[in-house]
Amino acid sequence: MSMELGLELGLELELEEGSKTETAAKAYDALSLSYGEWLDLTVNVWKEPRFRADQICQWIYAKKVFDCRAMTNLSKTLREKLLRESLIRVPLQVGERKSRDGTRKYLWQTEDGQRVESVLLDHANHTTACVSTQAGCPLSCVFCATGQAGYARDLTAGEILGQFLTMEQRLGRDINNIVFMGMGEPLLNEAHVLKSIRVLNHAKMRNLGGRHITVSTSGIVPGIRNLADFEVPVRLSVSLHAPNDALRTKLMPVNKRYPLSELVDAMRHYKKRTGERVTVEYTLIEGVNDDPQLAFEMGALLDGLGVYVNVIPYNPTGTVPSGMTELRRPSEARIKAFCAALTELSIEFEIRREKGKDILAACGQLAGELKR
Which residues contact 363 (CB under 8 A, 6 or more apart)? Predict the structure, then answer.
């Protein structure tokens, strides 16, 4: 197996030997390594027994120990190799806020100075980590603070995993679920997202079941089709927000590239291939997409798909999209009228009880103070 995949973020290491400084070969970005790459590195490069790869992965993914010197069941020689030739890059925490409802929002900084946010949601019987996949987002959805803030770059698999593992370390226990629903469009960073999922799911690494992993997309059709054939059976959530092309394009410019006909076909393909029900996200914005007639349009559009709809009353972002007036959350009466239409259509739904709204951690509110 080629080790090039493990060198995605390789750095020149400077090692002090007395008064002499020498430059080592590029260091492996440890959190971006798959299990197969760990085996290759351990057995073929370091000439160690293969069980050493299992031990290293256990320290990182089960025990959340990121300092090689603390991996006490490894030989001194192997620990020195790890220190010299690999970097376990966990993100630098530069901020944390806690909501009245128990939600925590973390602000992380990457090595090149980009800032991204993650959210830890505490439910009655489980916890969920919402992680970012890009520094910013290129899609410019009008109701989303991330999209309005702009785009810097994709995150690596290691930078994605680092958010999750560091939150687990801070919490002191495993997190039950992960949603790729933070900053960025996961399926525009498909290779790194899928690699991070393989690591999370692998029995010798994090060992998180596919049903506890959700990928949320604004409707990247090729990515949805690829997810349908992906070896890890993850759950799919699609941000819809409008049931016709004219309105959806106004709210989500990505609809110009992947119109509703193509998106719904991809959703049907996903359901046929996986047997899993698709969740649809629908943000209700007063006077924009909250007319009950649009619920009936959505019913016709998604007929036969058996979707589950998350109705999300709009969370203010503090920005006014170009060419639009200020967006507002609908009144309770308008929310109830829209949901009554869904009930009439026998569409299963839930009104999303926003968590973390007071710390700008609810859906659409993550901005990350991006470095441009």
Answer: 181, 281, 283, 312, 315, 352, 354
Q: Which token pair is 255?
A: 């609809």
> Is 363 assigned a catalytic role?
yes
The last residue of one of the domains, among 46, 64, 87, is: 87
DSSP-derived secondary structure letter, 31: G
Looking at 117, 168, 281, 354, which residue is catalytic? 117
137 is annotated as an active-site residue: no
**Domain CATH code at residue 53:** 1.10.150.530
Residue 372 within any structural domain of the chain: no
User: Is the domain of 102 the same as that of 246?
Assistant: yes
Global pTM value: 0.90
CATH code, domain carrying 169: 3.20.20.70
Co-location of 37 and 163 in the same domain: no
**Sheet containing 104-109: order of strands:** 92-98, 104-109, 115-122, 127-131, 177-180, 213-217, 235-239, 279-284, 308-313, 348-351
CB 311 within 8 A of CB 349: yes
Would 251 be classed as within a structural domain? yes
User: How far apart are alpha carbons 161 and 166 in whole angstroms?
Assistant: 8
Q: Which residues pair with 93 in a beta bridge?
A: 108
Digit-coded pLDDT (tens) for 273-317: 999 999 999 999 999 999 999 999 999 999 999 999 999 999 877
What pLDDT digit, counting tens, does each position of 110-148 carry? 999 999 999 999 887 889 999 999 999 999 999 988 888
pLDDT computed for residue 32 by the predictor: 97
Residue 266 amino acid letter: A
Active-site option among 68, 137, 141, 363 = 363
- Identify whether residues 126 and 73 lie together within a single domain: no
